[in-house]
Amino acid sequence: MSAIDSHFHLDRTLTALGLPPNGSIDDVLRATSVNEGEITIEGEVAVYCDPSTYPSVKTLQMFSDGLVVAVGVNPKKVSQASDAQAYTL
Predict the structure, then answer these.
(1) Which DSSP letter does residue 38 get?
(2) What's the sign of the alpha-carbon dihedral 33, 2, 39, 47?
(3) Whole-angstrom Cα distance, residue 23 to residue 19?
């Protein structure tokens, strides 16, 4: 069976695993145990909601073709967001 992970926080996962903030899903998979076989992940949607961890353009360019990025602002983090950040992604 194949699936798409439609919502995960790559930035928070990288932080929890002690990995660099510009890491990738491949870095996460290397740092964790994955049981393969029953479900194959065909694509992912990485959700960034903390302005302090928004990916840079360089980081976005390093992501695989199967990864879609969604950027928003968590209501608890709205004071950290600036208009300039919204236009630099």
Answers:
(1) S
(2) positive
(3) 7
Name the residue among 51, 47, 56, 64 with its Cα closest to residue 22: 56
C-beta atoms surrounding 39 within 10 Å: 11
Ramachandran area for residue 17 (φ above 0: left; ψ -120 to 50: alpha; else beta): alpha
Task: Judge whether 85 and 71 are in contact, CB under 8 Å.
Answer: no
Q: What is the 3-state secondary structure (H, E, C) of 38-55?
A: CCEEEEEEEEECCHHHCC
Q: What is the pTM of this model?
A: 0.63
Please give the structure tokens belonging to residue 48: 């960034």
pLDDT tens per residue across span 60-71: 887 777 788 888
Strands of the sheet with 67-71, listed across from one edge: 2-8, 40-48, 67-71
Determine which helix (DSSP H) or strand (DSSP E) holds 57, and give its type and residue range: helix 57-62
